[in-house]
Structure formats: C-alpha cells, structure tokens
C-alpha cells in the first residue's frame, strides 16, 4: 500500500525538478544565405503556409508555443525539431547537393499527398497547421515549379 502512495509523490517531485531544465531554443537571428528562397521563387502565400505548418521543425527558427515552457513538452518538441531539421531544413537548403534538393522537394510533395506532414502530434495542438486541399495544391505546384527551375539551373 505504501509503495502505491509514494509513487505519485515521486512523480510530482520529478515533474517539478525537470521544470528547471531549459535546453537551448532553436532560434537564430542570423542572416540565411542558404535559405530556399534564395534558390527558387517563393511567393508570399507559399512562404506563409510553410511558415505556419512546417518551419517550427524544418528551419532554424521555431515559434515556441506556450506549452513548451512546461517540461517534458519542450523535450518532445526539441526531439522533433532535431530530427526534422536533420531530414529537411528550409534555411539550409542551399547547402544540399542538386540531387538532394530534388529528392527533398519530391518528399515534400509526397508527404503532403500522403498526409504524413505536418506530424499529427503537432496538428493536434496547432490546428492552423492543418492544410486545406487548396493550400496543399498550392505547395505541390510550387514544388513542381521549383524542381523544374532547379533542374534548369543545374544543367
Ligand atoms: C512537429 C514537427 C514537424 C512539423 C511541424 C513538420 N515536420 Fe516534417 N518531419 C518532422 C520529423 C521529426 C521528420 C523526420 C522523421 C519522420 O520522417 O517522421 C520529418 C520529416 C519530413 C520529411 C522527410 C524528409 C525525407 O527526406 O524523407 C519531409 C519531406 C517533411 N518532413 C516535410 C514537412 C512539411 C512539408 C511540413 C509542413 C507542411 C512538415 N514537414 C512539418 C517533423 C515535423
């Protein structure tokens, strides 16, 4: 019986202690010479959609929502940012080889068609990151144009 009573208290203590751990935040005030907008045309509406739905995990700047000031949510978010950026970073797009750029653009298109991005654990709270069909088609045709224009550049 005693063990059962102690468990929640132990958990509470741990929860309180981890509130004092604040990992570095994904914020860069730096100029971004390798940003994708330097490589392909990025109309403001496309940029707006990518910013609200993708940039938190796929850029060097995350808009941290209030709940990430509470642990362990910051760690979950950090984990997604780290692995998301490793796969695709819009701010570092220019550092990719032409082949990688093409393959990343293809995966963006696929992820939207399959509905695998943005992550559902994210849209659960970020309702405005759920993309409408119109927003998806806009991004998909931008991806197709970008693939073509990069292809021409690299001929
Ligand atoms: C909450 C964080 C988060 C958001 C928001 C998010 N992603 Fe991701 N994304 C990830 C993570 C984590 C991975 C790597 C692991 C995986 O594939 O699940 C990933 C992987 C990807 C990949 C795969 C890259 C590859 O080469 O296979 C693409 C493409 C992608 N995301 C596109 C997008 C697009 C487009 C959006 C916006 C519409 C978006 N993501 C929003 C976290 C996120």
UniProtKB/TrEMBL annotation:
Fetch the InterPro entries from UniProt: Haem-bd
Q: Which organism is it from?
A: Pedobacter cryoconitis
User: How is this protein named in the record?
Assistant: Cytochrome C
The Haem-binding domain, residue ranges: 12-147
SMART domains this protein is in?
A: Haem_bd
């Amino acid at each position: 019986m005693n063990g059962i009573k102690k468990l929640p208290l132990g958990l509470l203590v741990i929860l309180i202690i981890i509130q004092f751990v604040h990992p570095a935040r994904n914020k860069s005030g730096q100029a971004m010479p390798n940003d994708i907008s330097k490589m392909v045309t990025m109309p403001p509406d496309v940029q707006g959609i990518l910013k609200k739905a993708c940039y938190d995990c796929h850029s060097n700047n995350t808009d941290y929502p209030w709940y990430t000031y509470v642990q362990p949510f910051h760690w979950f978010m950090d984990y997604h940012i780290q692995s998301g950026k490793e796969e695709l970073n819009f701010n570092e797009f220019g550092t990719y080889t032409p082949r990688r750029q093409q393959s990343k653009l293809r995966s963006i298109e696929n992820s939207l068609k399959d509905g695998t991005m943005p992550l559902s654990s994210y849209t659960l709270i970020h309702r405005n990151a759920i993309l409408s069909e119109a927003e998806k088609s806009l991004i998909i045709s931008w991806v197709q144009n970008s693939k073509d224009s990069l292809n021409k550049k690299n001929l």
